Amino acid sequence: MLIYKDKTKPAVERARHLLGLMTLEEKVGQLVQPFGWQTYEHRDGKIELTESFKQQVKNGGVGSLYGVLRADPWTGVTLENGLSAKEGAEAVNEIQRYAIENSRLGIPILIGEECSHGHMAIDGTVYPVPLLLGSTWNVDLYREMCRAVAAETRAQGGAVTYSPVLDVVRDPRWGRTEECFAEDPYLIGEFAAASVQGLQGDALDSDASVAATLKHFVGYGSSEGGRNAGPVHMGWRELLEVDLYPFKKAVEAGAASIMPAYNEIDGVPCTVNTELLEDVLRKQWGFDGMVITDCGAIDMLAAGHDVAEDGMDAAVQAIKAGIDMEMSGEMYGRYLLEAVSQGKLGIGVLDRAVLRVLVLKFKLGLFDRPYVDPERAGQVIGQSEHVQLARKLAEEGIILLKNEKDALPLDKRAGTIAVIGPNADHGYNQLGDYTSPQPADKVATVLKGIRAKLGAESGQVLYAPGCRIKGDSREGFDTALSCASQADTVVMVMGGSSARDFGEGTIDLKTGASKVSDSSWNDMECGEGIDRMTLGLAGVQLELIQEIHKLGKRLVVVYINGRPIAEPWVDEHVDAILEAWYPGQEGGHAVADILFGDVNPSGRLTVSIPKHVGQLPVYYNGKRSRGKRYMEEDSKPRYPFGYGLSYTTFGYDQLRISADSITEDETATVSVNVTNTGSRTGAEVVQLYVSDSVSAASRPLMELKGFTKVELEPGESRTVEFKIGREQLQYVGRDLKPVVEPGLFRIHVGRHVNDTMSTELAVREGK
């Protein structure tokens, strides 16, 4: 038996043997990744592979396919022409079978899929977007979600996912804010590790595991002006201790793959940044997995960043810098063979990349079990347990921002309710970007959720959309006002939309990102490629709220959106505000559960919400020296990091620390008593922050270094403990290395960054 076919041998040994058998054309073939949805045609329930795909297999093979199962306007895959759960598995089997049986060495294809908040395929469960997932502050629940996503994806043959997104949000005008967990690196790091653990499971070759791809490496959330893929202006110290931190935690958790970002940092595009890809990632962190570009990133080197003379130069620079595979581009396939023949690329560099791809395939078990069971796919994908999990996550991540005079929860018998707004009954608007098409009956909108909650009394629910997300049409105002005038309570579901459309010219055909469209029927104002200058409600939404407010009814606003909304008038005038982000397919039920008190809200903000866009940046962990106010207003956000209300109250007391001083190698335990002082069961997010009083390099005033979510019955108390040691006290010093400096630290524990108790801890010189 050939060594590479012997499943008892280690993955690296098998990969090295196979590499030695390959031709130059076969090696280059392993580094290319065409668009997967272009490899087949689906007609009358049958899958037929395209001639172009068959030719690629014949000409040296295909290493990977991107988005075989992806469905959205970019792919042109719809509910009508797309693949069901079972059909998707059958299609992947057909692709694998052809590649294995019609290539000289029988190398299986690596199927890569988008799974940021659920597998982006028809029938897949749609979970809340990462911004809401982070707002749960429940890492264990998120890890459980990642296991479910991995199970659904692998059941159809997907073996690697292009998630998690670990970007640190620094400017929420950025359209991809919704894809991120937070503005804080520590919190993102906790979710990053959980993501890898959940997606990859105990073994990559399990039929319920996929390889995680960390993205976007790095600084992508700190772009100039919040413009997607814009330049990043950041020094190495900040890069190391903020933006790189979550990636390091995920690499330590065993992540199998990583994706460099589109942006440049200090003039060097991440795609060819050897300091990041080789010195930090591989040498310092010991990462031994695969590096894959973002879509079209190599093209940008010669047409965008302009750091390469042409495509040949771009491809050679990328592979030399450490890029192993090109996502959905054509540069590797077009130029690498020629580059070797012309002496511009050494065979050793090429072999290095190919080996990493092959090792991952062996670790995933693709050579030994390349096919999946279509019947099982139909059973696993979209199962009821996954739907229930989607609802639970939404319930835990929705944030109660305001509740004047206990306007919430609503009484189910307290008269007529008017549900008004462009997001009240628009299912796709509450799902976020990177979502497949959905049948109308699969998504529970807020209107559907409220009607389902009231059951036989649902006749007391009135509805009017009122206006669109964008545009200046007020033709729906009269109907909305009439509806609201008949109600005792008005629930206005406003916000944004990341729903992609099929309009011609609204999709970047190279990267798949949406483009701004002025079409009256396009409401997309968030998502990849949709960055904004302001953070206010788009269109005439604010005007509609103001008109309905004049009626004097109890007024509750529910925001469904992908980035923070800064609307001072709403904050000051309405009775209650729920921030639901994009809550997924079960979001309407979750909102209704909270509105009527069947669920006590426990979500907490992971991004600060400003009073005005002119305050940006407002992330909480900025430097002490950044100033305190403008002429017009102070610099404090409307709602701070970690903030969120509950239907009960919590008291903190007896903050204590086990030692007054420690050395840098010792630990202390800080503890606090937390009591539910209200009349309802509720969950509190207890947050730990550390402040370094004096340091050789300037530090933020406060930094999150721990958190835990505890559920308490009325009157119940619990002691919460946190360990304080090197990891919580160190920072990147002047020599760009981690250091714990002797001196005084202040330890804060509380309900959010601006509401804490504190004690002191001294770090002394060790013996």
From TrEMBL:
Q: What class of enzyme is it?
A: hydrolase
| Signal peptide (residue range) | none
Alphabetic keyword roster: Glycosidase, Hydrolase
In Gene Ontology terms, what is one molecular function of this protein?
beta-glucosidase activity
Give the EC number.
3.2.1.21
Pfam families xrefs: Fn3-like (PF14310), Glyco_hydro_3 (PF00933), Glyco_hydro_3_C (PF01915)
The UniProt entry, under InterPro entries, shows: Cellulose_Degrad_GH3, Fn3-like, GH, Glyco_hydro_3_C, Glyco_hydro_3_C_sf, Glyco_hydro_3_N, Glyco_hydro_3_N_sf, Ig-like_fold
Report domain Fibronectin type III-like positions. 684-753
Query: What's the name of the protein?
Result: Beta-glucosidase
Species of origin: Paenibacillus favisporus
